[in-house]
What we know:
By secondary structure, the protein is an alpha+beta fold. The chain is built from six helices and twelve strands. Strands 1, 2, 3, 8, 9, 11 and 12 form a seven-stranded antiparallel β-sheet that branches. It has a five-stranded mixed β-sheet with strand order 5-4-6-7-10, with no helix packed on it. The protein is globular.
Amino acid sequence: MSTPPYGSxxxxxVGPADATTPAVLRAWLYEVDQNGTSRPMWATGGQPMKxxxxxxxxxxxxxxxxxxPEERFLRAPRAEGxxxxxxxxxxxxxxxxxxxxxxxRTNTLRVQQYGLSAVPLRPGTAMPMSGEDVAVWIPVVPxxxxxxxxxxxxxxxxxxxxxxxxxxxxxxPALATQPVVGPVLYLSPAKQEALIAYFGDFLSxxxxxxxxxxxxxxxxxxxxxxxxxxxxxxxxxARNRHDVLAGQDGLFTAAEWYPRLGGPGRSLxxxxxxxxxxxxxxxxxxxxxxxxxxxxxxxxxxIIDRQLGSxxxx
Length: 314
């Protein structure tokens, strides 16, 4: 069973809650299937599995517990290889960031910001939630035989928090250092289409364990199989959108904001660092990708659960 096929960014410091998002932090648990897609551990009717207000700690726990004003418990079914309390999420009042802590003693978790690669989180260590949409990969022992004998199995903790205002939570005085912010680039509708068509695996959410950059033939085939109306035809459309990104005047090849390395024959996969930079500077966010996929009729290229980030801003 795959994630429903059609379903943020900035820092995850805390700001005031609004009428549509009464809780500051929202959490879901997913099971990752053998084919790499994910499914919620239980139905929620589109609501978060757990909502966490300010000054409250979230525990992912096998035993569970009684929710209180100070603690929330997100119960996870027991699994071989998973600690009884693998993840704790809490607010660092000094910095204003939500912190993700590996509460286990043995296995390394992986933390992944939307659109970027996962980074390791060793047992007993913590790191800040660096974006509004973050996933925590929790390794477990595979159940039953798998196609690949030494394959890995995971559960996913999906976290969403609204972009905050530092002054709401930080106890430190305002810093005089000038902030260094990368350019937020305008992406035309053709570039929006092209990014989803070719980098849709990296833009899926929950994240896929082994995403890849699509080749032109694959983009063409998906348009044909799904019956998408592409002008003048799927083949020419796929070629054009490839050139929009990597042609002579493409987004990646003509960019001043990204070092142009490599020869003229480099493939789109070699531009992955540039794609990641677009995510880092917030030119690409989960709410925007959801909107672009619907507006441009390219939903089959990206797998996004509708309930995730539904209250987030674009």
